């Protein structure tokens, strides 16, 4: 049985490796095409719905940045992975960010494991994350403030989440005034309709204007497998890729 499991592991690892190499190739080509320095856009592998064993496989393939969007699934998975991970040095420790909609009641658990939250779009969520991060800091569950990226709505559709550009300053001030939080930048999800290049250009414009007031908010989390090239051209510092690397969701999660 052990040999069979090892064989299955080899098949899955090889599958992930091939897809990961293809996405890394696309990202590297996009960065070069945009005239940007190599490595200036991070690849976040979105592992929601997939087990801790897949995260472990990705660790062996050199991945260190992961995105999760479901709590408490994420918290359990992160704890399981970190419990048996012995990095060679601090720089080798895997990092997990929250990229999905945040429920205020789950802020406490998110603050235990997330480096940053990419999907902040309401004052209530800022309050909840700030309180949760303060407790986590006080209890030694985290060593630094919780990073915050404000999710921007490009088309004003409330169903897709995000805050419109005009409301960004108030939310940014709320984050900046909480010393348990750090304002790191903006996150966008391009609308399904319309030209992808247009939406990413609009994201770049909003981010550049935002940085005139918040110079340290340098991150722009933008782009997924379908619009990676357009996002990189627009200055994305992090693309979030799930299915193109992980494959289709496990049946139990559909």
UniProtKB/TrEMBL annotation:
Residues 20-250 form the Alanine racemase N-terminal domain. Gene3D superfamilies: Alanine racemase. The modification N6-(pyridoxal phosphate)lysine is found at residue 48. It holds the Pfam family Ala_racemase_N. It comes from the Bacteria. Coiled coil: none annotated. The keyword Cell membrane does not apply. Keywords: Pyridoxal phosphate. Pyridoxal 5'-phosphate (PLP)-binding protein, which is involved in PLP homeostasis. This is Pyridoxal phosphate homeostasis protein. It comes from Gordonia amicalis. The lineage of its organism: Bacteria, Bacillati, Actinomycetota, Actinomycetes, Mycobacteriales.
């Amino acid at each position: 049985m052990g040999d069979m499991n090892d064989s299955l592991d080899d098949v899955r690892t090889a599958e992930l490796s091939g897809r990961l190499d293809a996405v890394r190739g696309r990202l590297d080509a996009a960065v070069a095409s945009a005239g940007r320095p190599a490595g200036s856009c991070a690849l976040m592998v979105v592992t929601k719905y997939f087990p801790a064993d897949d995260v472990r496989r990705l660790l062996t393939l050199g991945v260190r940045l992961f995105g999760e969007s479901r709590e408490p699934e994420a918290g359990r998975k992160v704890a399981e992975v970190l419990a048996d991970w012995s990095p060679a040095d601090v720089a080798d420790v895997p990092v997990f960010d929250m990229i999905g909609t945040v429920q205020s009641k789950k802020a406490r658990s998110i603050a235990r494991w997330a480096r940053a939250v990419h999907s902040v779009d309401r004052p209530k969520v800022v309050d909840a994350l700030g309180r949760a991060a303060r407790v986590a800091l006080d209890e030694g569950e985290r060593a630094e403030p919780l990073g915050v990226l404000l999710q921007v709505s490009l088309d004003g559709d409330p169903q897709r989440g995000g805050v419109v550009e005009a409301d960004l300053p108030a939310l940014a001030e709320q984050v900046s005034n909480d010393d348990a939080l750090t304002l790191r930048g903006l996150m966008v999800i391009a609308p399904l309709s319309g030209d992808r290049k247009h939406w990413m250009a609009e994201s770049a414009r909003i981010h550049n204007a935002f940085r005139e007031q918040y110079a340290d908010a340098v991150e722009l989390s933008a782009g997924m497998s379908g619009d990676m090239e357009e996002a990189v051209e627009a200055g994305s510092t992090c693309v979030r890729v799930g299915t193109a690397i992980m494959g289709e969701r496990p049946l139990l999660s559909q």
